[in-house]
């Protein structure tokens, strides 16, 4: 079981957010729902954030970076599988295409955390 890392889940879709929180909680992480603008003043080991599409990646990363310097995993239904296009952005540990599998998510989380 992993140490109790704190993970912020920034996801606007209720069903997807609940699924992500459940997967992370079941794997032993302390997952909390959050808003990108609401990260300031909170301490998280990792931020998992949904992005509307490739054009809004830079804006989301800048918003998250104002409050969180640690690892960031992006999720989007608009990413192509294996594209890796967003990985050139500073601090983006992984970019996962939706729909995604539980194992795919947990593998990316484990790789992003120390």
TrEMBL record:
SMART domains hit by this protein: REC
Keyword list, A-Z: Phosphoprotein
Q: Where is the Response regulatory domain?
A: 6-113
Q: Where is the secretion signal located?
A: none
Q: Which residues carry this modification: 4-aspartylphosphate?
A: 50
Q: Which residues form a coiled coil?
A: none
Q: In its keyword annotation, does this UniProt entry include Lipoprotein?
A: no
Protein's recorded name: Response regulatory domain-containing protein
Q: Which organism is it from?
A: Pseudorhodoferax aquiterrae
């Amino acid at each position: 079981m992993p140490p109790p890392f704190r993970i912020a889940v920034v996801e606007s879709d209720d069903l997807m957010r609940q699924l992500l929180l459940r997967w992370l909680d079941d794997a032993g992480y302390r997952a909390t729902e959050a808003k990108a603008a609401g990260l300031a003043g909170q301490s998280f080991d990792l931020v998992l954030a949904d992005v509307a599409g490739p054009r809004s990646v830079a804006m989301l990363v800048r918003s998250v970076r104002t409050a969180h310097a640690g690892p960031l995993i992006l999720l989007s239904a608009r990413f192509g599988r294996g594209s890796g296009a967003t990985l050139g952005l500073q601090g983006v540990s992984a970019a996962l295409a939706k729909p995604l599998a539980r194992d795919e998510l947990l593998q990316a989380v484990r790789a992003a955390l120390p």
